[in-house]
Design brief:
The chain is mostly beta strands. The chain folds into two domains: about 160 residues; about 190 residues. Helices cover about 0% and strands about 45% of the residues. The strands form five sheets. A 14-stranded parallel β-sheet has the order 1-2-5-8-11-14-17-20-23-26-30-34-38-42, with helices on one face. It has a 13-stranded parallel β-sheet with strand order 3-6-9-12-15-18-21-24-27-31-35-39-43, with no helix packed on it. A twelve-stranded parallel β-sheet has the order 4-7-10-13-16-19-22-25-29-33-37-41. The longest helix is centred in the N-terminal third of the chain and has 9 residues. The radius of gyration is 23 Å and the shape is elongated. It comes from Moorena producens PAL-8-15-08-1. InterPro entries: Beta_helix, PbH1, Pectin_lyas_fold, Pectin_lyase_fold/virulence. This is Right handed beta helix domain-containing protein.
Length: about 350
């Protein structure tokens, strides 16, 4: 369990120059048993390390903590403008990044085999994903970090992974904040923000996902706040949303705030506010396709719009329930929503009413 100190921003491996580059420190840690630590001693005016794409990704094959500055400006590890992944984790390594900015790669960090923890870090400008996992059975934890101006913030492609996101923000990404493409992911999100992404805030598109979102804000995303399932497929996802704000999202399709598609998905929503969302077709606030089950308790679904393009196709400004979908509501307000086709401004479809609801006409 050695400590290696990076004291130059130069790239490459040169054992005779008297300094240690980041690439050299990672190579040394790979060859040292136990979980090592990499620290930085760089001049305050030179906090940026540009990785040479000709030398390839920084391949981490053994467990390591990579720790940036504890005060002052963060150290930036950036790509050189060519498409390549900046860091790759393999060989079952357990890796922690703390207080670093990682920018301008294809993927910022790709996990092929291993586990990842990210704390107090920034990911920006990545051409594909800030963090991508191709691994199966990996654990990824993100705490107090920012994902901005990437393609996806986090993209999980492998199966049976565990992703935890705490107090983090996903802003202005060109696709989704979080994209779950691999099956059987367990995702836990708490006190996080997903805003102004060009896709979904959270895209739960594969099968067998178990997702819990607590106390978070999902706002101003351009293709639904949360999308659950894939049209025409059996998904078997379980999603729980508690104490969250789902506001001002839009889509040209259905489900501006929350879109439940495919079949055999279960959604539980308690103590949420769903307002200001719009859909070009059905369900400005929430859309539930046939074959899915939704339970709503003590939610406010107010001021959403269906058929936002006013072409007469789309219903249920607040809530759309497809034929054969099972939706039960209790202690929930669904009022002051709009259907620009002017047929079903608040609810379209049959529901199970457990009482205590306030539903507009």
């Amino acid at each position: 369990m050695a400590v290696f100190t990076v004291n130059t921003t130069a790239e490459g491996i040169n054992p005779n120059d008297g300094v240690t580059s980041l690439r050299e420190a990672i190579e040394a840690a790979n060859n040292s048993p136990g979980k090592d630590t990499i620290l930085f001693e760089l001049e305050p005016a030179l906090p940026t390390i540009t990785i040479d794409s000709n030398l390839g990704t920084l391949d981490i094959t053994d467990s390591v903590n990579i720790v940036g500055r504890q005060d002052g400006d963060q150290i930036t590890v950036e790509g050189d403008g060519n498409p390549f992944d900046i860091f790759t984790i393999s060989n079952g390594a357990n890796v922690t990044f703390n207080k670093l900015t990682i920018s301008n790669g294809s993927d910022g960090i790709q996990v092929d085999d291993g586990n990842l923890k990210v704390i107090d870090s920034i990911f920006t400008g990545h051409g594909t994903d800030a963090i991508k996992s191709e691994a199966d059975n990996s654990k990824i934890t993100v705490i107090n970090s920012l994902f901005r101006n990437n393609y996806d913030g986090i993209d999980i492609n492998g199966n049976n992974n565990n992703l935890k996101v705490l107090r983090s923000s996903f802003l202005n990404n060109r696709s989704d904040g979080i994209d779950l493409d691999g099956d059987n992911t367990r995702l836990f999100v708490r006190k996080s923000t997903f805003s102004q992404n060009q896709g979904q805030g959270i895209d739960i598109s594969a099968a067998g996902q178990n997702v819990t979102v607590l106390g978070s804000t999902i706002s101003n995303n351009q293709d639904s706040g949360i999308e659950i399932g894939t049209g025409g497929k059996i998904n078997n996802n379980v999603v729980k949303l508690f104490n969250s704000q789902i506001i001002d999202n839009l889509t040209g399709d259905s489900g501006g705030g929350v879109n439940v598609q495919g079949t055999d998905n279960d959604l539980f929503m308690v103590n949420n506010t769903i307002t200001g969302n719009s859909a070009g077709i059905n369900g400005g606030g929430v859309s539930v396709e046939s074959g899915n089950t939704v339970v709503l308790g003590n939610n406010k679904i107010i001021g959403n719009i269906a058929d936002s393009d006013n072409d007469g196709i789309g219903d249920g400004g607040g809530l759309f329930i497809g034929l054969g979908a099972r939706v039960a509501i209790a202690q929930t307000t669904i009022t002051d929503n709009l259907d620009l086709g002017d047929e079903f401004p608040n609810i379209k479809g049959d529901l199970i009413n457990f009482g205590g609801n306030q539903i507009g006409v």
